[in-house]
């Protein structure tokens, strides 16, 4: 069952941590989970609150938690959140409830304050040991836009409205926000070249996605039915599936993208939990009347009713010159995440229907989420119509694809009437020149 | 550098372990690494010798090893071989040298005998925690044969002779020989159906591949040059990439196979090390004159000279009725592994050229290895010409694709003049009926 709203979402609940109230991403209604380290400490679990991180190891040691919430905090002593996520929704929700109480009642300030670290003193890590990373393709406008580039006559393939298309990605190269984006070199062959060359990509792009973190897993051979899928979804991050379009065009047939994508995937390092997302659940509305109904294994009335998210996504770019000149980042796109043709629960049900096992800490990407209109397209490939329509930056520079020195930022904001909005934190990367080839 | 022949390959070297001399797969010249458990012990490292397993934990404790060989054996105390493989070729080769000496000189029998376990008392496990699994497509006859099925007008795509085509597979569902093959259910839609249905696959197939185990890895952003690739290759196993052809046909565009492959991959659980393979290295000969030369990052004269293997692969099938009636398994195919268009070193160099990191214990599949002639085709899709040419079994049964109760076995034999042949052990799976959908 998708988590429901409770007292932890109460908009009247405030927090005694300085600066946490009014914080756009991490107010007390969010409480995302992450793995952090500070000078002299190994990576371990924490919860973001405003501009601070609550140290879960220290909290577990302080005797302020009990029951399943304490179990969850103890599991967060590890260098990854896999053990905590494996506990499933019960302990995770109990930890949230207890931490929310501790951070809202000022009586706890004297004992809990020493357990807070300034977020600026923390290094964030990929929150789990990702066993497998799967990338889906649920943004129907993206699929259509990209299809027009690679297959002009056949943009949306016949399987798209039946199959939540996905493919396996590379887990090893997932990195937290801030990791350098080294321009990759690989084989490139444009149609006017007689043979390919090894060269740095000339068409470096980003893809605006959500990352889905798996909580409890399933046994090989035992599918997760769609009406139980929510129990296996721990939470979300932002995800940038950096893509080398010229590499992709040459290599992707017949088995899909490989080097075009596996050089780096950046995530925002905080897991915004399924519990935190409860107020922002909304009706799945991306399937127009007349489209085929989902097959029964992909259909759950509760998921149709609450499986989508009231979420606005935004992408901004700052060139090296803009940064040097103090010009603020330029917004490339802004749009709702409502064009996901398949819900996250449908992704999970489909992934496992043939028996494939998901494990705690696994990562799913949604695929690029583009809005219906160009101001909400989620990649440069789409925004510049495959590089034919350059974007003008505020200082007069033009962009078709990313250039060395560009800093690209994803952000997201969950909003719903009567609730305090929350966000994901940073998902940022700066492009650096290719290695010599 | 590809390991060279030394005294451990001496055909005159015999072993005091009963039954080890003349053993077709695991003579003293092989000494493959694996992870095993016995009643009452947790999984840990061992070396196969004849019908026994030498317990590496017990061996390390016995004070019979020293230096890097001891380091390697100590690393094998873990439930996976990742730590041992991370040590790279030096300690692995030292362990081989020392174990070969211990098992060949009968003076050691009194102290080493107690460290041997009967292989029949051992449960074998996947030898590593596989961080990522990548499947390549280097069998050119297979690529051509399959291309004819899925793209009759365009069997071998223009990139094939330039790019070692690969895609990311599912690491979580890799299992050791003997794991049940539950017939997967997923979406199927033949051309005569108006819409897909969720149904058990009707076209369950196997794929005959080699699995490549990565030893030491590389850092994200630092490619492995082809002339250093051999240092990163720990060894090989057999690999069966079970495939649901009807699922594949419906789902695979545009991003490649997904549920058609991720329900199970079976490996032979012993890693036949790069050191053991030294005598069986041979010239890479699958690239006909007139084909384009490999790009420089894929070309190494030493790899061209010794990058291929003198290896014969074989597949056998026993139906439920054959097994009940005592009919021996029927050979489906037998052929040389010489049609790999790309060497393993080329696979590694290509995988990392854009900066992607490989990690110790990662698994690469070669893709299906089909010989040039039908008696050596590596899948039923090819052997039965996409199900149109049934195979007759010795008892009169027919097969187009696998049926419930079928047991499918891969085997491989490395042979070279003047050396003792070695093999991989079992890579077996029996098909069981689909779950109710």
TrEMBL record, chains A, B:
Keywords: Calcium, Hydrolase, Magnesium, Metal-binding, Phenylalanine catabolism, Tyrosine catabolism. Its EC number is 3.7.1.2. One of its GO terms (biological process) is L-phenylalanine catabolic process. It comes from the Bacteria. Mg(2+) binds at residues 241, 261, 265. Gene3D superfamilies: Fumarylacetoacetase, N-terminal domain, Fumarylacetoacetase-like, C-terminal domain. GO terms for molecular function: fumarylacetoacetase activity; metal ion binding. Signal peptide: none annotated. Its cofactor is Mg(2+); Ca(2+). Pathway: Amino-acid degradation; L-phenylalanine degradation; acetoacetate and fumarate from L-phenylalanine: step 6/6. Pfam families: FAA_hydrolase, FAA_hydrolase_N. Substrate binds at residues 137, 151, 248, 252, 368. The active site is at residue 142. PANTHER family: FUMARYLACETOACETASE. This is fumarylacetoacetase. It comes from Sphingomonas carotinifaciens.
């Amino acid at each position: 069952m998708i988590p429901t709203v409770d007292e932890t979402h109460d908009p009247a609940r405030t927090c005694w941590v300085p600066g946490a109230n009014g914080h756009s991403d991490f107010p007390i209604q969010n409480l995302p989970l992450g793995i952090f380290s500070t000078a002299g400490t190994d990576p371990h679990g924490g919860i973001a609150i405003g501009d601070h991180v609550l140290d879960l190891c220290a909290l577990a040691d302080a005797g302020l938690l009990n029951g399943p919430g304490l179990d969850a905090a103890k599991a967060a002593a590890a260098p990854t959140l896999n053990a905590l996520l494996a506990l499933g929704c019960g302990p995770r929700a109990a930890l949230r409830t207890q931490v929310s109480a501790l951070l809202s009642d000022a009586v706890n300030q004297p004992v809990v304050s020493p357990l807070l670290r300034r977020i600026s003193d923390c290094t964030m890590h990929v929150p789990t040991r990702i066993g497998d990373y799967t990338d889906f393709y649920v943004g129907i406008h993206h699929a259509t836009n990209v299809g027009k580039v690679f297959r002009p006559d056949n943009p949306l393939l016949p399987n798209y409205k039946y199959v939540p298309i996905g493919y396996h990605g590379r887990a090893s190269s997932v990195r937290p926000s801030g990791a350098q984006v080294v321009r990759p070199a690989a084989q490139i062959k444009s149609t006017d070249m007689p043979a390919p060359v090894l060269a740095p990509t000339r068409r470096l792009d980003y893809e605006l996605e959500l990352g889905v973190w798996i909580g409890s897993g399933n046994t090989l051979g035992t599918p997760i039915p769609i009406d139980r899928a929510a129990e296996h979804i721990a939470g979300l991050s932002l995800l940038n599936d950096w893509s080398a379009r010229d590499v992709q065009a040459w290599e992707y047939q017949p088995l899909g993208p490989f080097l075009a994508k596996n050089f780096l995937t950046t995530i925002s390092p905080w897991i915004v939990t399924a519990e935190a997302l409860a107020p922002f659940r909304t009706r799945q509305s991306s399937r127009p009347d007349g489209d085929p109904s989902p097959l029964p294994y992909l259909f759950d009335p509760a998921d149709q009713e609450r499986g989508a998210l009231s979420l606005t996504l935004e992408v901004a770019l700052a060139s090296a010159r803009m940064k040097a000149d103090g010009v603020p980042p330029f917004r490339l796109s802004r749009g709702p995440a409502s064009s996901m043709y398949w819900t996250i629960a449908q992704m999970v049900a489909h992934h496992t229907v043939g028996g494939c096992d998901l494990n705690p800490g696994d990562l799913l990407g949604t695929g690029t989420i583009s809005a219906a209109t160009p101001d909400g397209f989620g990649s440069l490939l789409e925004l510049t119509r495959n590089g034919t329509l350059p974007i003008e930056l505020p200082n007069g520079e033009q962009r078709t694809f990313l250039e060395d020195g560009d800093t690209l930022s994803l952000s997201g904001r969950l909003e719903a009437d009567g609730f305090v909005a929350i966000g994901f934190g940073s998902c940022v990367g700066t492009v650096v020149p290719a290695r010599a080839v």
